[in-house]
Amino acid sequence: MNPLDESGSPLQEERRYRYRWARFSSWLDCVCVVTFDLELGQAIELVYPPDVKLTEKEKTSICYLSFPDSYSGCLGDTQFSFRLRQSVGRRATTLREDDYDRDAPVTLQRETSHFIGYVYFRQVRDASVKRGYFQKSLVLLSRLPYTHLFHSLLQIITPEFFEKLEPCLEAVCNEIDQWPSPVPGLTLNLPVMGVVLQVRIPSKADKPGGSPVRHALKENFLPAPTLLPSITDLDLFKCFQSVLVHLQMLWELTLLGEPVVVMAPSPTVSSETVLALVSSISPLKFCCDFRPYFTIHDNEFREYTTRTQAPPNVVLGVTNPFFIKTFQNWPHVVRLGEIRMAGDLPKQVKVKKLSKLKTLDTKPGIYTAYKTFLHKDKALIKRLLKGIQRKRPSEVQSAILRRHLLELTQSFIIPLERYMASLMPLQRSVTPWKTPPQIRPFSQDEFMSTLDHTGPQLTSVLKGDWMGLYRKFFRCPNFDGWYRQRHREMSQKLESLHLEVISDADLLGWTRDKSEVETVDLILKLREKLIKARRQQLQVRDGVLEKLEVFIKSVIWSLPRDLQRVLHHPETCSGSSTTPRPAAGPPPPRDLQRVLHHPETCSGSSTTPRPAAGPPPPRDLQRVLHHPETCSGSSTTQRPAAGPPPPRDLQRVLHPPETCSGSSTTPRPAAGPPPPRDLQRVLHPPETCSGSSTTPRPAAGPPPPRDLQRVLHHPETCSGSSTTPRPEHHQ
Fold first, then answer.
1. Where are the domains of the chain?
2. Do residues 467 and 448 lie in contact, with contact meaning Cβ atoms separated by under 8 Å?
3. Residue 210: pLDDT band by 50, 70, 90 thresholds?
4. What is the three-class DSSP state of 135?
5. Is 69 within 8 Å of 270 (Cβ atoms)?
6. Which residues fall within 8 angstroms of residue 438, CB to CB, at 6 or more apart?
7. pTM above the 0.70 mark?
């Protein structure tokens, strides 16, 4: 039994919470306070808003991931991030989130199956506490990868929170609930605790690596807003300064989705290094799993450390030296230590053999047998090291690094983009009278043949085995994710072009010499396309969808009235019944579905015989309706042997009238209550329902089921061999 599907479950509670905290939930899922209890260990002290329901599994993981590992010995304030898998069956994305993901860069889209936790941990000496230390974490739980923004937010609210606790947290959450929702391309002012953070949400339309144009906002804030240049960017130079000479190797390992373990001295270094690796292949999305901070208490610990199968495609950040022994079978381990200086330069770690990764005091280094496909960029390394000697600001060093990695990734991905565009059908092949042409399949051999003339050597100075790198890339999850994304975008583009071509065609002229069946088929297909276009929010010219809606309405009015009724108001089509079907409730009956899919079969003015689709009525009911005299005990007609006798109340109702009024010599069966009134009303002429009584026909009760109407109106449809004429129907 899934606890998320029950009434009052976290899923139900989450829906109510998202309605109550609509703006807050567009930024954060919740805020958690985790403390250390002497009896329980780490425990969640508070979750805000209180409407949020986390599963026990999620709570346990948050508790362990919100505290540095015991080996880290972090005193003072520590900030880091973690990534946590959600419980199964949580929720689907909302329309607002779909809008955001459509316009945001792929690297900044919302997480669909994970939470991202942003932690501010404080550990200070406190004599009033038995343990001797005050230990508490404030955690922001979100699905947005806004690392820089949320850590900046924590730096503002946490110092005051540790003094005022829950009242402070409640005030902050209410302020966040007043923020505008994140919209890609907009610059937003976000006030919190007397500070205004001004941020710009990146858009898919932004030029990669460029400086987006900022639009000054008209609000007058006092004090002036604090400008955040980026909501995501990390200090890449700080993360990579001890591995600069091996930057090319780390980029290739991330691009190929190789299993990598980063062993760091603290959760801060661990999480920042993992996030820096993942962002190094931007604008390509990292489609493998990654955990900026991972502990032995994590739910996936057994899954990731098993030795019975190859390590999964995941990048893990750990701090516990215990993992050195656990991950001995992993192919790539990056062991980081405290930054040491060799003169004016940070000491660079060396590449070492995996066999040396055995002891707990393993020295810093990159333990791998991997051989890079491309050569190092010695000019970049020299430039960065010279920048250290000249005391160039870390922000400038990071900008140089980010620019280099962006150009390297673009040089790799541009040939793929160019070849993928060649698989798109020509626009002139899209016609209004045929389904859109298919996108040609991706051929690795054909792509490889294009590299001699349009390969990465046109935009990159790096030499090496580019073809070998591409061949290995084709086998990794990053290629699969990239291809699926591009194929989906191209398919939507084809659908948009097809809709535009259809709207430009003379559809009314086409329908003049076509049969009703062909016209109705066109209407149904166009309706399906419009629904799909709105659901997927296809980008089409202004007025295209409205023009097609007008065409559908005009064609429907030119059809016969019975078809108009079916196409305009399908819920009112009910055969011979004049009672309109209510809009709410379960899906329509099968015969109504048949009418909507094949309007020509709808009885009414149509001369097409009604099909016999659907199961026949029960055999005892067939026998009663075709040969009612076989139900009377005094009849000399032999009762058929097949099937059990019908219920007594049904026998009594279906007998000749004299058996219902008590004047017959045949004894009336006494067992059982009288039949339902609606069944009396339908199956009997008025005079047979009450014997000699003058009581008027009861008006209560809904009409009988449709299949029973069909049987009573057309009994000949129930038994092909029966010659019994259709009985006259009395209202």
1. 10-210+219-227, 236-396, 560-614, 617-632+645-662+672-731
2. yes
3. low
4. strand
5. no
6. 425
7. yes
Tell me the β-bridge partners of 367.
Answer: 333, 352
Q: Does residue 491 have a pLDDT over 80?
A: yes
Closest CA to 262 of 279, 243, 285, 235: 243
Give the dihedral sign, CA 303/306/309/314.
Answer: positive
Q: Are strands 332-335 and 365-368 parallel, antiparallel or unpaired?
A: antiparallel
- Measured CA to CA, the distance from residue 286 to residue 478 in angstroms comes to 6
Letter for the amino acid at 100? Y
Q: How far apart are CA 469 and CA 453, in angstroms?
A: 17
- Cα–Cα distance, 180 to 199 (Å, whole number): 12
Domain 10-210+219-227 listed as CATH 3.30.450.200: yes
In order, the DSSP letters of 169-220 are HHHHHHHHTTSPPP-TT-EEEEEETTEEEEEE---TTSPTTS-PPPPPP---
- The strand order across the sheet containing 41-48 reads 41-48, 30-37, 133-142, 114-125, 76-85
b/e burial code for range 370-409 (CB count within 10 A of at least 16 → b): eebbbebbeebbeebbebbeeeeeeeebbebbbebbbbbb
Residue 264 confidence (pLDDT): 92
* Same fold yes or no, 10-210+219-227 and 236-396: no
Contact 654, 676 (CB under 8 A): no
- Per the CB < 8 A criterion, the answer to whether 205 and 185 are in contact is yes
- Minimal CA–CA distance to 277: which of 248, 301, 319, 245? 248
Instruction: Write the single-letter amino acid at 662.
Output: G
pLDDT at 76: 84
For CA atoms 446, 450, 451, 455, the dihedral sign is: negative
The helix-helix angle for 247-255 and 394-422 (nearest 10°) equals 40
CATH superfamily label, 236-396: DENN domain, C-terminal lobe (3.40.50.11500)
* Phi–psi pair at 467, nearest 5 degrees: -65, -40
**pLDDT (mean) for 604-610:** 42
Helix/strand/coil for 81 = strand
Q: How many residues does the chain have?
A: 731
Confidence tier at 686 by pLDDT (50, 70, 90): very low
- Both tokens of 441, joined, read 């399949």
Rounded to an integer, the average pLDDT of 331-338 is 90
Beta strand spans in 332-478 (E): 332-335, 341-342, 345-346, 351-352, 365-368
DSSP letters for 275-292: HHHHHTTTTS---SEEES
Q: How far apart are CA 314 and CA 258, in angstroms?
A: 7
